[in-house]
């Protein structure tokens, strides 16, 4: 398929740090942290320019308890098989679609 696409990733597919072999790596400032016991939700604000035309909030669902704090810089990563592509109408592209940078 060709044309504009939206990149998506499920919160449980994101991991802190650069991630070896990661296809997606973004950094931003922590907006909030919610510790739920068995897991931690952390939302970062990804500034425009990291593949995003405008700032974007991104939530990660991490196993266990993490000590992140609001305002802290945090990098998140995901593997290629965990990335989802959607066309301009919101239809999901097949998972086998190779990822290419628009740059």
Strand fraction band?
Answer: 35-45%
Radius of gyration: 14 Å
Measure the end-to-end span: 18 Å
**Biggest β-sheet: strands ordered side by side in the sheet:** 2-6-3-4-5
Structure, briefly:
With 103 residues, this protein is an all-beta fold.
Question: Would you give an account of this structure?
Answer:
- The chain has 103 residues and is mainly beta.
- The chain is built from no helices and seven strands.
- The protein has strands at 5-9, 15-16, 24-35, 39-46, 56-63, 73-78, 83-87.
- The strands form two sheets. It has a five-stranded antiparallel sheet, with no helix packed on it. A two-stranded antiparallel sheet has the order 1-7.
- The mean pLDDT is 87.
Fill in the keyword field for this structure.
two-stranded antiparallel ribbon; 103 residues
Strand and helix map with partners:
Layout lengths: L4 E5 L5 E2 L7 E12 L3 E8 L9 E8 L9 E6 L4 E5 L16
Antiparallel strand pairs: 1-7, 2-6, 3-4, 3-6, 4-5
